[in-house]
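Appendix B: complex inputs.
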Amino acid sequence: MVVGLELVPVRKITRMETQQTSNEELTLRSPASVMRLARMGSFHQCRLSFMRTVLRRLQRQAWTFERPVFEIDADGVGVAVYTARGPERAYSLICYAHDLPDDQRSDRVIAEAWDATFTLFDGVPDRADIERLSHHVPKQEAGRITEKELVLCRANRSVRLFGHVIERLAAGQQPDAEQIRSVGYLMRTTAVYGSGKFGAADRELICDRPEFAGPFQAELLAVYLVRAFTVDIVEHLARIRSPQTAVKIAPELRRAIGVGNSTGLGMAPYLISHPVLLNNWIATRETALARVLALPSASAAEAEVFRVMLARASINAADWHSVHPLQIEKLALLRADLEKLTAHTAEADLQNDRPWQRFLDWTVEHCSLEGQEQIVSLLLEPHGALVDDLVDTMGADEDAVFRIDGAMPVERLRAILADTYGWALDIAWQDRESIARVWYISEEKLEPRLGERFEEPIEAYEQPLAPGRDVAALHGALVQWAGEPVTAAFLLAHPEHRAAVRRAQIAAKLPYAEIRDNTISSELLPIDMLRCKLSFFGATHFDPRSDRWVRINMYRGAPFPDELSNAGDDDWSYPPLGKEA
Amino acid sequence: MRVSLNELDTMVKRAARGAGCPWGMAEEAGKAARWLSARGEPGVAVLGEVLKASDASCCCACPVVLKHAQWVMEGRDFCSLRAGAMLADRAAELAGGAELTFGPVNQPLLLAAFAAAAAKITGKSVELSWRGARVVATGAALFVEGNDLNVGRTEAVTCRVTSQALAPRALLAGCDVEDADWQRLAVLAQRSYAPATEESRLAGAGAGDNDND
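Resulting structure:
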């Protein structure tokens, strides 16, 4: 299927708190095309992704790493501390390792015990801190942390790989490369909490620090250190099992070990409830793309980088496994697209006459959404110097747009709805299929869930995650409004439309703030929202377990802390050449 | 207990929803409680009282009318959450020199958070006064004086811009809340969560209970 892309000139893309780029005149892809769930569900990581930003900073600023505490017994129980030191501050991951019975191993929020639990501590903890936190961190949501802690997370072993690696290392052998490649991680995290959750430091307390100005930098620093722990603990347990024969994992195999993550619905509402952040992420990626597309020419070296990265992306696609029918279909499309694209690079001129615009045009004409979005990510690879500065524009202050403009004429509000929410006003909201789903929070550990409106007694608990429907209802009320024609007067009479008015005013300012699809339709695939968000994190190997649950890999291929100073220049996120399956 | 401001915001928002507020008003409640608490004012306790009144009788359908130059909510005391939202929505009128008077109002201290919102929009300090108390808010700072700041109700609150400037003040990192106040919100918030059922547990999250692979 060929999906066309409407391009519109956007004279000035509004992005909150942006200076460098606000005056650029670039042609950006239209929100009406970009903000569709099918496309968002085909995004891939890119140079702007947050894991790559974290590692670029650690490398550029020559952060150092220590492991001041590592006290783990033969059952794998104990505590370890990893400290990362930057130019101004140090942060420490405190790891509590547990002996978890198999029947308690669950990646759901409703789990109550894990193989390992972690917190990212602001500074270097002393024994009293480690002792205090040992009563809370292992309990996760049921414990309390403080402003001295920035992140709370946990991980479970990959039962498939964890035992295998210990067994092999203990016997003096390397683990099976194929098993490492097919699983990809020793442990997978099942939730990574920051921003004041469970008593942790509020984001306002740390967002002035350059290392945490970007989104999710503290959380992803924690995950990077978790990865080091997962390898250290298997090597340690192998050594305890057989001190005479045990060996360490070979560096090349170790690189292929990332951190898994198992993610459910909590992430999907996040995209809807953080419209400024969503806008800034997408606007930044679109601006980066537009900068590259506007280049009149590319050097031979840049063209070669693109060819190499395309080849490496093809290896990545070949290595990417899923058993879910939806993803199998998407992977088949992606692989077919990459074959076509590889053949095309052999004949296309990648250097002259706006080469990247022509290449993307060709891709849009010949490839699926998977291939199109893969190319968008790959086009940024040769041009780090041109786009990497944009990561500074990806943070967001949601509060800056929270306040409603009550002086806005009702006529203007109506015009915004017509301009920005045409897609929503066209939906037949009276149809059951259009409102089939309900987003809700269960009283069971407050797990976010999605249910069937007409089959379950859940409508009374619905979360406000259907902006399209709510704005359509607002439109109906505005059409009938005969009072004083200003927003303040309308809202005084209709407090029930306050949330929709707020969203509409935000969407009018920020073109990529709103997903332009029905988020409660019977056709909704929540994994599209998860993939969009996780691609910005830098995740790879999306492996859905259902329409609303996905496993991913984080930091696979990345240099470990002890390798960082000698690692290449942000060159880890696609597998190296010469490792074809 | 000690809570982060983010937790406080979320708890108040859910409690407001549990008390029957529309989502847009629930969001206002969370942000207002957070603003007050970050400045050492009893945001959680004040919202607990406001939501108790909302829960007893929802004010969403109550007409608001202007009587003798005073905005009143017909048939009851003006809910300070509604009054606050109205005040912030009319920031431009205030900046233009208009005076708004509400009354009688419950928990007038809550209005300070909305006066601050109006101040942020207009770039001017906004003053609230009622019998026995005066409050000045800028976008970031709060000045309070008088013996009757935290009263349950007052006959009239007047709101206007003022030339009084305030020095910015460092925000608190998290805040200590009374367990009883927090618990009262938790009870209301609980009503916004769906009861646990086997069906929901199995189907709602899209993953099974076990992860042994």
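Chain B touches chain A through 52 residues (CB under 8 Å).
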